[in-house]
Design a protein that fits this description.
Length: about 625
């Protein structure tokens, strides 16, 4: 199809964060050379249908929020169904703004009720697929895609204020915590300037009454002569709000929401100006709460966060840019159009009722978890205990009979038992959920990473298949920075290597625990690792292993294959031309000792290679 037009539909311009968010996304992805992205401000189905006739798009992206585009989700009976957006025969993507894991898993928030025959009620999906700009989501729902955030491009030429200046902004909606900012500043500082921008909101506070009431509350809280408060109510456009934030020493957001909500777009703008940021533990800031040192005011004072500067947040700035957002949407459109085309081939001439029923039967269930079958359902966030400072990164002592390329059998379980115990101390809840006999893999990977750490100064580490991988989780808990990729979290390895900000030949250590056997194309998998490793870097991989296994032989359905000595010595190494084994392997295993599901007997093997220095 020559026409590659995609409509990007939003409501007409308003003093509204949803509008600004959508416009920023459009500005980024409109640079696509693969798709022709057309901006459309629309306020009715009739206008939408006219634009569809005019442009003939292959897809539509909606900057959708129920408060701003109510016309899109009108309740309609079957006689009026022809006017509903679901009658549009092009693939439709809806951006979910107030996203949570629960909404992403169920996608129930954006359904509209259709009445059939006066009595039958069916819940029809409004869009074919959904996009959520929440990097913390787990991708459990095959109809939900996610992206990172989009940080506006901005060069901050403002000098740091001589007097400590604390800034914040937001519409005058409840629980923004402006009063808490005033209180906290006075607790920590005797002299400071507080600058707040609280404009009226077309949706929620059109006359600005709430905004003015909040300003009055803040003014009444001032007790110290050295604290000056300045509040403005002008609506600032994208560039205006960036200029406002750039002139502050630190920007602070102390939202008071006690329930899980979508992410705050305020942080996108605050990151753009590269000033320190302090936040509450509100779920709306969950995407930056993992920064180290912490930017949470529950863990650090404003003064301490200010002293750390922007460095704890720099990694977010590097990743959440326009180039990556364009890549994300191109990738999503490619995937969604392929799925949609396949679905249409299966439903060539559906009637209205048949189409509605097919939508109703679209179950938003959890996907096949075979890719992470050893990783159960517990998440890293459940392991919140403080780590014993006596736990070290010192590896165990290996004898000359213990190579790194080996079989992980019962003998290895005994050898690595101290490391298994260490992992139980660091991430106890996640370890307890694992298959006990398989924990030797994570222990080996963790210990081997620790063994190579001294070879590198500030090593750059990548974990492939990081979802609930206790080796990766433990390394992070011990203070190491580990970049994580996993299809449940973000990408397949073969996708990640095409990301604009991915740097080839840059990783000193790449670890991957029991992942490669699930990849249909394992040669491309190791080729990517070869290309990502820095000269002198090491890759530490474990896999399901049974020497002598042949395609067609019995294996668990979750595995693509078992590995053999020929696979490891020849086939995979041939796809890694710049790498070699770190030692002489010992992969003989006449008696495998791992039993799975009562009918599969095999073992685990390690594959540790090092990239040449030239």
């Amino acid at each position: 199809m020559n026409n590659r037009t995609v409509l990007f539909v939003s409501h007409p311009k308003k003093q509204c964060g949803v509008f600004e968010f959508g416009k920023n996304i459009y500005d980024a992805i409109s640079a696509s050379e693969k798709y022709n992205i057309v901006w459309l401000e629309c306020n009715s189905l009739e206008q939408l249908h006219e634009s569809i006739k005019q442009y003939g798009p292959i897809a539509i992206i909606y900057n959708y929020h129920p408060a701003t585009m109510r016309w899109l989700a009108t309740k309609l009976g079957p006689k009026l169904y022809k006017n509903n957006v679901r009658n549009v025969e092009v693939m439709q993507l809806g951006i979910i703004h107030e996203i949570t894991q629960e909404i992403a898993d169920s996608a129930t928030a954006y359904r509209t009720e259709i009445i059939l025959g006066g009595s039958q009620r069916l819940s029809s999906v409004l869009f074919d697929y959904y996009v959520a700009a929440d990097p913390t989501l787990l991708l459990r729902n095959p109809f939900v895609y996610k992206t990172g955030r989009l940080i506006p491009a901005f060069e901050n030429t403002s000098t740091m204020p001589e007097v400590t200046t604390i800034g914040s902004f937001g519409f005058g909606t409840p629980k923004k915590g402006f009063e808490k900012i005033v209180t906290k500043v006075q607790e920590e500082f005797d002299e400071a300037i507080i600058r707040l921008n609280i404009p009226a909101a077309d949706f929620g506070d059109p006359q600005g009454e709430n905004a003015r009431a909040i300003a009055a509350n803040c003014e009444a809280l001032i007790r110290k002569k050295g604290i000056k408060l300045y509040v403005t109510h002008d609506f600032l456009d994208g560039q205006g709000i960036l200029n406002f934030l750039a002139r502050n020493s630190i920007n602070v957001f102390l939202y008071e929401d006690s329930v899980v909500r979508g992410l705050s777009s305020a942080i996108d703008n605050a990151l753009a100006v590269q000033r320190p940021i302090a936040v509450s533990n509100s779920s709306m800031f969950r995407h930056i709460l993992r920064s180290a040192p912490s930017v949470s005011t529950q863990k650090n004072t404003l003064a301490h966060i200010l002293s750390e500067g922007f460095e704890p947040l720099k990694a977010f700035l590097d990743q959440w840019n326009a180039a990556n957002m364009k890549w994300e949407y191109e990738r999503i459109l490619d995937s969604a159009l392929k799925k949609f085309s396949h679905k249409e081939q299966q439903q060539q001439h559906p009637g209205i009722a048949q189409r509605l029923q097919s939508q109703f039967r679209r179950v938003f269930s959890l996907p096949d978890k075979s890719f992470t079958w050893l990783r159960n359902t517990v998440t890293a966030s459940e392991d919140k205990m403080e780590v014993d400072e006596s736990i070290s990164l010192q590896p165990i002592v290996l004898s000359k009979d213990d190579p790194l390329n080996r079989i992980l059998d019962n003998r290895a379980r005994i050898l690595y038992s101290p490391v298994i115990d260490k992992l139980f101390k660091i991430v106890p809840k996640t370890m307890a959920k694992k298959i006990a006999e398989a924990n030797v893999q994570q222990a080996f990977v963790f210990d081997t990473v620790c063994r190579f750490l001294p070879e590198y100064h500030q090593p750059k580490i990548l974990c492939v298949g990081s979802y609930e991988d206790t080796a990766s989780m433990s390394l992070i808990r011990m203070g190491l920075r580990v970049e994580e990729i996993d299809p449940m979290i973000n990408y397949f390895l073969q996708e990640y290597i095409t990301k604009p900000t991915t740097q080839l030949s840059s990783y000193n250590i790449i670890l991957s625990t029991s992942v490669i056997e699930h990849d249909p194309n394992d040669e491309s998998f190791v080729r990517c690792i070869n290309d990502l490793l820095a000269p002198g870097g090491v890759a530490i991989i474990t896999c399901d292993y049974k020497d002598g296994w042949k395609p067609g032989d019995a294996k668990p359905s979750v595995d693509e294959r078992f590995y053999t000595q020929h696979d490891l010595k020849v086939r995979l190494l041939n796809s890694m031309p710049d790498c070699k084994l770190v030692d002489t392997p010992q992969w003989d295993c006449p008696e495998p000792d791992f039993h799975y599901l009562g009918k599969y007997v095999y073992t685990f093997a390690t594959f540790v290679v090092k990239k040449n220095n030239n």
